[in-house]
Design brief:
Largest sheet: 6 strands, parallel
CATH superfamily of the largest domain: Response regulator
Distance between the termini: 63 Å
Number of helices: 13
Number of domains: 3
CATH class of the largest domain: Alpha Beta
CATH topology of the largest domain: Rossmann fold
Number of strands: 12
Shape: elongated
Structural class: alpha/beta
Strand order of the largest sheet: 2-1-3-4-5-11
Helix content: 40-55%
Length: 325
């Protein structure tokens, strides 16, 4: 494997000159730059990125920790984060915590060792102090963990409000809300708060069903929804806190012999691709996933440049009505 010394010898320049070309530091004539670049290409030289990052105290890496990369919302979010990071000249280290505190802690330690320039936290199973101990700029998704750490979220309360109001307006009189474990204290719990406020206001019978601590265990969804419809056959509306749950609600409602939307109306959340693939197509609350990814990168860059950053960053949601309502 070629070294920087081999490049210097091939180009007929000093090692210092090669280093200046690599790091774009100091004056280098175009002729010298061309000779060094040609020597690197001919020798197949690859610079040591770790050494270079230590030299310039910047790795050009961001870390993204999410709970489950297979979940459509987080896979689309990861795609948008990577896209906007790349536009800014950064690469992304993707960490899949799977809601495991030990795994999340290991990933945080790994990101520290790799001297990442910033971390986007989409998974939050650890205590707040463990996040505060990080020296890198941090942005969190959908959770407040400290007044000094900025967070990004869609307008969860408004999303829950739009979903519940639509079902009430369509004539639903007994509505079930399927959500994650409310003990996790996520900002997404505001969807449930809004659902309760709307249904209480209109005197509509309501049920709140929590999926459990691991909200990404899809194996439980089928059983949970099948049991719900069996125990409450008079349910005529379902507000699911994700499109995946909404898709299972469609499946189990059809299995129970219900017509959609004549007998039961269903609203999901996120507006991932699956909401358009299922039949009938799922009415849902659209989260601005592209804008979430773009803002996450923007907030990291602002912190790196010592700019003033807003603690709270709430993005608007939108009701997308399709065939299930």
């Amino acid at each position: 494997m070629a070294t920087i010394h081999d490049v210097a010898l091939k180009a007929g320049v000093s090692v210092t000159t090669v280093s200046r070309v690599l790091n774009n530091r100091g004056y280098i004539s175009e002729m010298t730059r061309t000779k060094v670049s040609g020597a690197m290409e001919e020798l197949g030289y690859q610079p040591n990125e770790i050494a270079r990052s230590l030299l310039r105290k910047q790795s050009n890496l961001f870390g993204l920790i999410i709970p489950n990369v297979s979940h459509p919302f987080f896979s689309q979010l990861a795609d948008r984060v990577e896209y906007y990071a790349y536009l800014e000249g950064y690469k992304v280290l993707l960490c899949n915590s799977q809601m495991d505190p030990d795994k999340e802690r290991d990933y945080i330690d790994m990101l520290k060792r790799n001297r990442v320039d910033g971390i986007i936290m989409g998974s939050h199973t650890l205590e707040v102090e463990e996040y505060r101990s990080l020296n890198s700029p941090i942005v969190t998704i959908d959770r407040k963990i400290h007044n000094n750490i900025p967070y990004i979220s869609s307008d969860n309360y408004r999303g829950g409000q739009l979903a519940a109001e639509l079902l009430v307006a369509k004539g639903c009189r007994k509505i079930a809300h399927i959500c994650g474990n409310l003990e996790l204290q996520m900002l997404s719990n505001q969807r449930t708060d809004a659902f309760l406020d709307v249904t209480i206001k209109h005197g509509v019978e309501r049920l709140v069903v929590e999926t459990g601590l691991n909200v990404f265990d899809e194996n439980k969804y089928e059983k949970l929804l099948g049991q719900l419809l069996q125990e409450h056959p008079d349910i005529d509306g379902i507000f699911a806190t994700s499109d995946i749950l909404g898709a299972y609600a469609i499946k189990e409602s059809l299995k129970a012999g219900k017509r959609i939307p004549e007998d039961i109306r269903i609203v999901g959340y996120d507006d991932v691709g699956a909401s358009r693939w299922v039949r009938p197509e799922l009415t849902t609350i659209r989260q601005p996933i592209d804008a979430l990814g773009k803002m996450a990168i923007k907030l990291l860059r602002m912190q790196m440049d010592d700019e003033l950053v807003a603690f709270e960053n709430i993005l608007p949601v939108e009701l997308i009505e399709r065939a299930t309502t």
